[in-house]
Design goal:
- This protein is α/β, with parallel strands linked by helices and 179 residues long.
- It contains seven helices and five strands, in the order H-H-H-H-E-E-H-H-E-H-E-E.
- It has helices spanning 3-10, 13-25, 29-41, 43-71, 103-106, 112-121, 142-148, and strands at 77-80, 93-95, 126-131, 154-163, 170-178.
- A five-stranded mixed beta sheet has the order 2-1-3-5-4, with helices on both faces.
- It is elongated.
């Protein structure tokens, strides 16, 4: 699990899970104190993962968010795999080719040829995507959009270079006008 997944999904439910267990299983006081101690001992880990997630969002998305907001209007259609934070700043329609936020892609995301065909049908005016810069392309990175939209001009308006919290890798996230 990445920093974001641990701090968003796992950390918030552990205290609730422990409370439910105590209520349902009627643990003795010593066991309750042990679980409470273990939960509190994990707090630095939760805090660290939250800080790393926030750092990732700040490094990668905040710089781009203002430009996304000022460039897009209510008639624009934006493709993005960052259907979370950055989508808050997009004016107009958002389409998630990964399928987390757009059901028609969720049904076909395991067949890249079908995804390509669906993208050709969309009338994207902007793309928010990762640029792997020659490395192995990830799912619907800029490499894929260039391949599918080869008859369109893709004008990069801004890119964000993020050093990931692991210190070993970086991500280039680009906001692109489709013309």
């Amino acid at each position: 699990a990445s920093y974001g997944e641990l701090s968003r999904y796992v950390a918030p439910i552990l205290p609730l899970l422990i409370l439910v267990l105590f209520k349902e299983l009627k643990f003795k006081k010593n066991i309750l104190l042990l679980f409470l101690f273990l939960n509190l001992s994990y707090f630095p880990l939760y805090l660290n993962t939250h800080i790393k997630s926030t750092e990732t969002i700040n490094n990668l998305h905040v710089k781009i968010a203002g430009i996304v907001n000022s460039e897009t209007n209510k008639n624009d259609v934006t493709a993005t795999l960052a259907a979370g934070y950055l989508s808050l700043f997009v004016n107009g329609k958002i389409i998630d080719p990964y399928g987390l936020g757009t059901f028609r892609y969720a049904k076909i995301k395991h067949n890249i040829d079908l995804v390509y065909e669906q993208i050709k049908k969309e009338n994207f005016t902007y793309i928010l995507t990762f640029d792997n810069q020659g490395r192995t392309p990830s799912y619907m990175s800029l490499f894929h959009f260039k391949k599918v939209l080869n008859n369109k001009k893709l004008n990069t308006l801004v890119s964000g270079d993020n050093k990931n919290p692991d210190g070993k890798s970086s991500s280039i996230f680009s906001f692109i006008k489709v013309e």
